[in-house]
Amino acid sequence: MARRGCSLALIFIIMWLLIKAKIDECRRGDVTVTPSRVILLGSTVNISCTLKPRQGCLNASRHNKLILYKFDRRINFHHGHSLSSQVTGLPLGTTLFVCKLACINSDEVQICGAEILVGVAPEQPHNVSCIQNGEQGTVACTWDRGRDTHLYTEYTLQLSGPKNLTWQKQCKDHYCDYLDFGINLTPESPESNFTARVTAVNSLGSSSSFPSTFTFLDIVRPLPPWDIRINFQKASVSRCTVYWRDEGLVMLNRLRYRPSNSRLWNVVNVTKAKGRHDLLDLKPFTEYEFQISSKLHLCKGSWSDWSESLRAQTPEEEPTGMLDVWYMKRHIDYSRQQISLFWKNLSISEARGKILHYEVTLQELTRGKAVTQNITGHTSWSIVIPRTGSWTVAVSAANSKGSSLPTHINITNLCGAGLLAPLQVSANSEGKDGIRVTWQPPRKAPSAVQEYVVEWRELHPTGDTQVPLNWLRSAPYNVSALISENVKPYVCYEIHVYALSGYQGGCSSTLGNSKHEAPLSGPHINAITEEKGSVLISWNSIPVQEQMGCLLQYRIYWKERDSNSQPQFCEIPYRVSQNSHPINSLQPQVTYVLWMTALTAAGESSQGNEREICLQGKANWMAFVAPSICIAIIVVGIFSTHYFRQKRRHSCPWTGS
User: Fold this and answer.
1) Which of 127, 274, 352, 624 is the most buried (most CB within 10 A)?
2) Residue 456 predicted with pLDDT over 70
3) What is its main location (predicted)?
4) Which of 69, 104, 119 is the last residue of a domain?
């Protein structure tokens, strides 16, 4: 009882403080607004400020200066006990006016104030739409309010149904455009009509929407299907059934599905599916995304939201297509040869599953029986076989469901038929990282060519057989091919073009690169020796990573030591295996300085190391860095490319090692 008394006392104190604050706010006078403190946009109002008795300045009424402020901006003033001002052009929303009293030698004192609300009457609500989510959901309606009234506006939503049933709900927020009745329409009379209407009211007017009439089937939106499953009968992609659960009144479904890496959906409409549908066009070994939507009636109502996605991978099927197989031969000795087979992976659509292994069968045709059968998980395989006999190879790919059709290839001498060799083979860079290979048909009738094979691999001076091999096939009527895969810039490639005809083949080769620059360094001279009256220069090859493309030629420079004359040089066309060359134009009893450079199509490298030599008549050549009979002085000179072009050229006979 004491607690209740304290609560009542607290409430009384709060109310008293609020009343006192209101009294103190306008204790000295009043502000009146006519015709109203709530006006229509564009209206004019009169604002009056009046002092209460004995609330003016102490000296005399003529000293009373009343000032009217609009927010914090002074708009009018008057000497006396009252002030009146007419105001127009007020903006939408709330504007605050304050009346203050100014006395001589004192600060301004607030008398009273007033807020004026400027707005518009509500527009007619339109686009009234109602929906019930699910058969057990509640009816909710939305509408367009029209423009903002800037005033307190009350919206009333009324729903009328059969048997004079009426439901009504209100919201007292001028931003209101949604109300939920909290009632559930049942399917007992699915064709019964219901009418919804929205009325908006504020102090400046009211407006009602046109009635919106609908039935149960029009507004009930089914819940999205759930519990989606997929079944592949006998693990076969051709026997796929999708299952799901729906609300009881659903008559129409639409099913959409797509591969997970695709943006395009396949859509199927199904009537009276009863929670299942068979799909017949799925691809093997592919992850798909499935979604389902529902509708209560074929013509009325709206679709449900799409269900949550189901992701599932289809089963494997036996591979289709055939492997692209190529090979190379290497002679080991007079009776044996090594056959290296290579093949490309099947595409995803051809593999139709995870390739587990490859089956290779090697057969000698004259014996007519399988010699070797092998299973490998790699895309290459090598074997040593006799150089005699006719050999054929079959290669197929296998997944968990079976094997692809085997690719048969006859092992033949790919370059054995000279008349089938393509003519004028050349390679030029094309595009960003491509090499365009061109050729002319062989001298033999072009109609004899069944196909061309263009093969490329990185050029290694050591002849490394482990360098990856690449190839592409071209139709017999083509005379060019673009190499765009597995090509690096600033790398030289050895390119072969094979013309195949039955059991015969002819080939031609060239070098090519997609991009090139001048080499980063010149060859390193490692030895100078006398051989049959001439000087033999030996050098180390430029490292592959410093060649910057295909080398075209070497240059050997020499000049007399301490001479200011231009150096002489000879040019040597580049050959992969060459690392020495003779020169025979040096004089006895003269000390020379020698160095080398290398050239690509882009230019000349910087010079390599320098070596000094002195020919002692019929005596042996001497090459040194330290002093000997011929005083050796290391001369380091770098000559520009322009300077080199002015040198005298000496032909170098092709008598290299």
Assistant:
1) 352
2) yes
3) membrane
4) 119
